[in-house]
User: Fold this.
Amino acid sequence: MPKLLAFIPCEHVMSEHNRNTISLISILSHLSIMVDVPENAAIPLKWEIFTLWQQEGSDTGKTFEQYCELRGPDGKPAMKSVLEFQVTAPSQRNVVTVTGFPIAPRGGEYSLALFLRETTGERKEIATFPILVVTPATT
Assistant:
């Protein structure tokens, strides 16, 4: 299985192919919502999930599934994404674009969980990233 080097939700991932560099813009660790939020609401935020994987010896040519799940303050899944990729180089960069961010009326701590599995195997949770959401009802 590839080794995780980075797992970061942010507003935008910029890539310069000529220099082979990546820039992560506005890491999402805290969101402040200034208006009252109804039940089952989402804010119109376009954001991205960046992962960087390092190839391990036996990974070449294998297909993997990267699964991300955003869990609300109640621990229930609020959003998910699935990305299949093959390891063809010493490192693998993945960017998942997400439109909308589900918001609970009282805000709270969300958790973005990352899972990985070989296409024929079982999903394993690899990492989590906390995102604090503050709404008027939080204070």
